[in-house]
Write a structure and sequence with these properties.
Layout (H helix, E strand, L loop, with lengths): L3 H27 L12 H7 L4 E2 L2 E2 H17 L2 H30 L4 H24 L2 H5 L14
Antiparallel strand pairs: 1-2
Helix pairs in contact: 1-3, 1-5, 3-4, 4-5
């Protein structure tokens, strides 16, 4: 099992990648454009034009930005509260990504590469945060503190 420090670093990198993906889509849509699929596929345009690209008038990429930001904050929050928060948030994000992927495959019948990239990042975040909870939950009380070599500052430690 990787050290918690390495798992936290991986989670931070994945959150930044997710923020980049969601941010690119959000900026493109906000400027009146449609995210383009690599290789000229029309899947991104089809998904973007569907009624499922917004929830209550808010583009789903904004929810991605919020989700990745919250997971990043929870990742920087040390000890068990941070582990649990990052796990729960990434579980929710993973479930939401599964729902959106289901819509793409079975309802919209088009695949957006940006959406699949985000779903992949969220799946990896869920795996990393699950490993943190399984491998390190409750160890703070037994060890008596945090690793002073941890390069990620954060509350709770």
């Amino acid at each position: 099992m990787p050290s918690e420090r390495n798992l936290r670093i991986a989670a931070v990198v994945l959150c930044l990648l997710g923020l980049g993906i969601a941010g690119t889509v959000a900026i493109t849509v906000a400027s009146g454009g449609i995210p383009q699929c690599v290789g000229g596929s029309t899947g991104c345009a089809t998904v973007e034009k569907s009624k499922y690209s917004e929830i209550a008038g808010i583009h789903v990429s904004v929810f991605g930005l919020i989700g990745y930001s919250l997971i990043l904050g929870a990742t920087l929050w040390r000890r068990d509260p941070g582990r649990i928060a990052a796990f729960v948030l990434s579980l929710f994000g993973f479930g939401f990504s599964l729902y959106l992927t289901y819509l793409e495959l079975w309802v919209i019948q088009a695949i957006c590469q940006w959406c699949i990239a985000s779903a992949t990042v969220m799946t990896l975040l869920f795996a990393v945060n699950t490993a943190r909870v399984i491998g390190y939950f409750g160890l703070d009380q037994q060890v008596g503190g945090q690793d002073e070599t941890d390069p990620l500052p954060g509350p709770g430690g």
